[in-house]
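QA checklist item 7 of 12: single-chain prediction sanity check.
[x] sequence parsed
[x] length recorded as 192
[x] structure emitted
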Amino acid sequence: MPKDAVIKQMKNSRVTAISMINLRALAGLQNINEMLKQNAQTPWGNRFGFLLVPIPIMGTLKNPLEFMRRIKGNMDKHKISLGMFITARLLRYLASLKVPRAVSRPSYNVITNTTMMISNMIGPVEKIVMGGNTVKSFSFFVSGVPQALQVCIVSYMDVVVLQVYAHKAYVDANIMSDCFMEGFEEMKKMAL
């Protein structure tokens, strides 16, 4: 399907992304022995939350750089909000009851009512070696999610890689990637 046809088809669509947010109090690498202690400042295990992000359809966005600034500010506010803290505590409490359905059902309901998932991982700035072999690059994606579209962003050695995973019946991944690249180029021009 040509790009113009895709944009025309999506003009009246409403796209909402779910973004995974790291809720750890401390950034960076932590000593694993410290994390395993009883009352550790940053305990072992995942600490994450979800944030719903409305995504504008290409052609409806006047200033992509301003949109990114607004979304970044919004995400930063939500990360430290009382709502995010209460939700994380509630999910942790439900998980402690050892009733998987108590945690999985509300999480699944939120996830299934979104169009796409966005996830990112900040990788190391230095070269890493595994088993005597230098790691040239790596990627990841979240499997088993109901969204037909995923955007995963990973950085490693100051190089950022954007990956688009799309179900063929939903959207053409190549067109979607082109749209992202156009948006990035526009933002780059505006920023310079």
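[x] summary fact logged: The chain has one domain: 3-191.
[ ] second reviewer sign-off
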